[in-house]
Write a structure and sequence with these properties.
The complex is a heterodimer of chains A (341) and B (322). Chain A has 341 residues and is mainly alpha-helical. Chain A contains 14 helices and 2 strands; from the N terminus they run αααααααββααααααα. Chain B is built from 14 helices and 2 strands. The chains are: A mainly alpha (341), B mainly alpha (322).
């Protein structure tokens, strides 16, 4: 199913007619600007209805959530782009990293910084280990898409329920101060939330710069773009594959630790985060690392901003709604090319 | 007879145990037949089967409890609602590549579950929805007295459900076997093997994929009815995405592109899952539950690594239209 399946003969005539209007054609040519314009319009409406203060306050929460999504999404999208693996166990990498941090921070009473580093390190190690014993050999056997998909689901189950076996279903929390708040510009933010935003945003910027300017980042993107071409031009692909897993694992671990500071840490929390992370990946165009970063932040903002209009208990459904909307309107994502599908 | 580990074999000769395993297995046969039709015969990866099950079960429950419908009228109506939902999900997302479709369907299923959780006035939310099964209990009583008249002095209480589940599952298996051998079934397989070629031959492939999904929704809804009757109430917890994946474990255990494999896979899987209850491990119930799901994960990983065609499948039929 190459590009033509999107606009094939089976489409409804109404879609075709809508697609031919000038506005739709302009929007299709500049998806980034269109998305930005829609976001800006939505935020303006929200400001008019709820005031600047409320919108800014909620946006801060959105940034916290968005950092988690973006950190999870960038690894998932690169693994997809480079290995063509839709890794349903990625959410459980987040869970794993968070419980490793819990082990250091609470069980052993270590400092938070050490817990974060340990969570990232161990998750990266698990990712490499799995590449060596599972994904590498499966690729060598030319396993099909369905085989890999179901294997990743089996892995997700195994990780999640091993964690549940060890730590139980009880809600856990890292040993962080959750009551202190900081005030600036009239906005109130929890100290922990602020730490999450700072760590999240700094990491995201570092990741972005690394992908854009370093040789490793360029090679990763090259592989994600066209594996065979990258290999022919002399890139040591097996080395980049390993680095990609380290990168994806460490960032997933970090995302898990950060998420555990702002939500309830339970064995299934990573799987619950996986679907919005998928949404962020698809929003940004699957395989596109920068798109995933932007998609994560946008989705975090949209999810939290939605609480101004609808009851917070529906918040979890917003990510899925956005996902289905994107798949319907523009399955290649905001940044993706039509040929990617 | 007790082994050092504390495995008691008495459980395996207990008729009640096999009846309850049989009900779960039979329910999963219906559930997984839908996946088999979609994945094994049409090449579309439906990850939302738990959602179709939820739609069917809740539509039935709400119609009976909140709208005072007759149970027997609510059942077919709920099937039609599930089909409608399947078409609604499939129409925009079936044009997508296999993995996108998988993600879209799991998202749709989660929207159903979250709606069931949040729409408390209608669905009862976490409190559950009760009182839809009076008509079923009457029928079960009739079946029981029929069994007594056949000479079974004290029938197992759940045996009527066991009977109805398996009769339904076997009818569905036979019908699907016929359908797959029909010209319609051959087009489905053509779609699975090479959608472009099927389209070039003038087949409306989207329509065929939608029909496949609609039948899967029907089977999901039927499974949902039996889940509801077996539980005596409805709760969103019964429709977690994990249940779709247990269905996939059943599917690949039995083997792709084999309807009888589904029945075999469901029986083996649920005997393993329920049998672990009788291994008297010195661990809490919570840990035992975790072990059961770890087994599901291991089954999936090991099968995909070493025997992707499962017990009865053919390797050359493991194709995804992507």
């Amino acid at each position: 199913m190459e590009a033509q399946s999107i606009s094939s003969a089976v489409d409804l005539p109404l879609r075709e007619r809508l697609r031919e209007t000038a506005a739709a054609r302009l929007a299709a040519q500049h998806p980034q600007y269109t998305a930005a314009a829609v976001m800006a319009l939505g935020i303006l409406i929200l400001i008019a209805r709820h005031g600047l203060h409320d919108v800014a306050q909620v946006s801060l929460n959105g940034l916290v959530l968005g950092s988690v999504y973006a950190l999870g999404a960038v690894g998932l999208t690169l693994v997809y782009g480079i290995l063509k693996l839709t890794n349903f166990a990625h959410g459980d990498f987040l869970t794993f990293g968070a419980y490793m941090a819990f082990l250091v921070n609470v069980t052993w009473g270590g400092p938070l910084v050490l817990a974060i580093v340990f969570g990232m390190l161990t998750t990266a190690l698990v990712a490499i280990f799995l590449e060596k014993i599972m994904w590498g050999p499966m690729r060598a056997r030319r396993a099909g898409l369905l085989q890999l998909l179901l294997m990743s689901i089996g892995l997700a189950f195994l990780l999640r329920y091993t964690i549940q076996f060890i730590w139980g279903t009880k809600v856990r929390a890292l040993d962080v101060n959750v009551t202190d708040t900081v005030e600036f510009l009239g906005l109130r933010i929890g100290r922990t939330d602020l730490i999450v935003i700072v760590i999240g945003v700094i990491t995201l910027m570092a990741v972005g710069l690394m992908l854009k300017y370093t040789l490793l980042g360029k090679r990763m993107r090259a592989l994600s773009d066209n594996f065979d071409l990258a290999e022919t031009s002399g890139i040591d692909t097996s080395q980049i594959v390993l680095f990609t897993w380290i990168f994806a694992g460490a960032l997933a671990g970090l995302a898990g630790v950060l998420a555990s500071e702002v939500t309830n840490l339970r064995p299934e929390f990573g799987f619950a985060l996986l679907l919005p992370i998928f949404a962020a990946v698809i929003l940004g165009g699957i395989g596109d690392a920068f798109g995933a970063l932007a998609g994560g932040i946008v989705l975090g903002l949209v999810t939290e901003l939605s609480t101004l209009e609808i009851e917070p208990r529906w918040k979890v459904a917003v990510g899925f709604g956005v996902l289905i909307l994107v798949l319907f309107v523009r399955p290649q994502g905001i940044f993706g090319k039509a040929t990617a599908i | 007879m007790t082994l050092p580990l504390g495995v008691t074999f008495e459980a395996f000769t207990d008729f009640g145990f096999w009846t309850s395993v049989g009900i779960l297995a039979g329910t999963y046969v219906l559930f997984t037949l839908g996946l088999q039709l979609n994945v094994g015969y049409t090449g579309i990866v439906n990850f939302g089967q738990a959602g179709f099950m939820a739609i069917g079960a809740y539509a039935m429950g709400v119609l009976v409890v909140k709208a005072d419908w007759s149970f027997w009228l609510a059942l077919p109506t709920a099937v039609f609602i599930a089909i409608g939902f399947g078409l609604l999900v499939g129409l925009p997302s079936l044009r997508l590549r296999a993995d996108y479709f998988a993600i879209a369907t799991i998202a749709a299923a989660e929207i159903v579950r979250i709606t069931a959780l949040n729409l408390r006035d209608v669905t009862g939310g976490n409190q559950g929805l009760f009182g839809f099964d009076d008509s079923w209990n009457n029928l079960a009583d009739q079946i029981e007295s029929w069994l007594v008249s056949l000479g079974w002095s004290d029938p197992e209480q759940l045996f009527p459900l066991f009977l109805v589940v398996w009769v339904t599952a076997l009818i569905a298996t036979v019908l699907l076997n016929f359908a797959t051998k029909s010209p319609w079934g051959r087009v489905l397989r053509a779609v699975r093997e090479d959608e472009d070629a099927a389209r070039a031959l003038g087949k409306n492939t989207l329509a065929y994929k939608l029909q496949s999904l609609a039948i899967a929704s029907t089977l999901g809804a039927l499974a949902g009815f039996f889940v509801a009757i077996n539980l005596n109430f409805l709760t969103p917890e019964a429709f977690l995405p994990a249940f779709t994946f247990i269905g996939y474990a059943v599917l690949v255990l039995g083997g792709l592109a084999s309807y009888w494999g589904v029945a075999a896979g469901a029986i083996v899987m649920w005997t393993i899952l329920e049998g672990t209850r009788f291994i008297d491990l010195p661990i809490s119930a919570e840990r035992e539950a975790a072990v059961r799901f770890m087994i599901v994960g291991l089954v999936l990983i090991l099968l995909m690594a070493f025997r992707p065609q499962g017990m009865f499948g053919k390797k050359e039929e493991m194709v995804l239209g992507d």
